[in-house]
Amino acid sequence: MKDLLLWSCTAAALLCFACADQERAGVSGVGTLEAREVLVSSKSAGTVLRLPVREGDVVTAGQLVAVLDSEKVFLQKRQLLAGLEELRYTMVNAQRGVQLAQDNLDNVARKFARIRSLWQDSSATLQQYEDIETAHKAAATQHANARTTLDALRAKKAQLDAQLLLVNSQLADGRIAAPIDGTVLETYIEQGEIVRPTGAIVKLADLQHMWIKIYLNEGDLGRIRIGQPADLEIASRPDQRFPGRITWISPKAEFTPKNVQTREARSDLVYAVKIAVENPDGVLKIGMPADVYLR
Predict the structure, then answer these.
(1) How does pLDDT run along the chain (295 residues), one tens digit per residue?
(2) Which of 32, 162, 187, 195 has its CB 3.0 to 4.6 Å from that of 199, i.e. a possible disulfide?
């Protein structure tokens, strides 16, 4: 009888300790699932020629989601390229002009030096000296003008090159690509419609990597940490648990969000905790409520 009583007391104590341990570790919360969403917009105006994606399509980063009519921009590019080609020939002639002006200046400079020396020795007249001096100044001016013309043409080429870069950028803007891997949640325009600058094209979401935010009081913060594993449960799959991990704990307290049902709970100060969860099978959906149990 004493042994039975002793065994009963021991079992009761172990059960109490187990319950206490479970209570210490039992941190849980409720939230709604979210995902990274990206609104893909147009940088320029134009008519939508192609819209190769539809709602529900899975896309990869860099994949084309829309093509705008860029015919006018393409014609501007052809015009610029023709202008650059014409300018190239003009610059070749200008470079020849600079070389001719330089050769003439060198030739006149030699004559000027020789006649000045003769004039200093009284072997040339003042008229000869003044004529060659004037010719030297004229040759120097012609050379300077030729170089200025070439420099102006180079500046013009730099201007056309910059315009060509701008046109190429505008052509690239006409091909709108997905910035992330994700799923098309919504399309905002149809083929044939005109989109304006910053106009929305599609909304993408990374449904493979989702997250949920729960709110805990100060007393629970000491029992959680970054990287701590968690389990998520949803009503449509009551027998399945989705593993997650804490990725962020808010450093600042806040009032419980307004979507909490009771006014008393909304008046409490809580800390937001973000749990990341993988969704390879696509079972989890944006906005789906879930229960979170931290291990």
Answers:
(1) 444 444 444 444 444 434 434 333 479 999 999 999 999 999 999 999 999 999 999 999 999 999 999 999 999 999 999 999 999 999 999 999 999 999 999 999 999 999 999 999 888 899 999 999 999 999 999 999 999 999 999 999 999 999 999 999 999 999 999 999 999 999 999 999 999 999 999 999 999 999 999 999 888 988 999 999 999 999 999 899 999 999 999 999 888 776 554 444 555 789 999 999 999 899 999 999 999 999 8
(2) 195
CB 160 within 8 A of CB 76: no
Other CB atoms within 10 A of residue 291 CB: 16
57 vs 62, 183, 207, CA distance in Å? 14, 6, 12
Q: Are strands 46-50 and 58-59 parallel, antiparallel or unpaired?
A: unpaired
pTM, two decimals, is 0.70
Domain ranges in the chain are 28-68+185-294, 71-171
CATH superfamily of 28-68+185-294: Efflux pump adaptor protein, beta barrel domain (2.40.30.170)
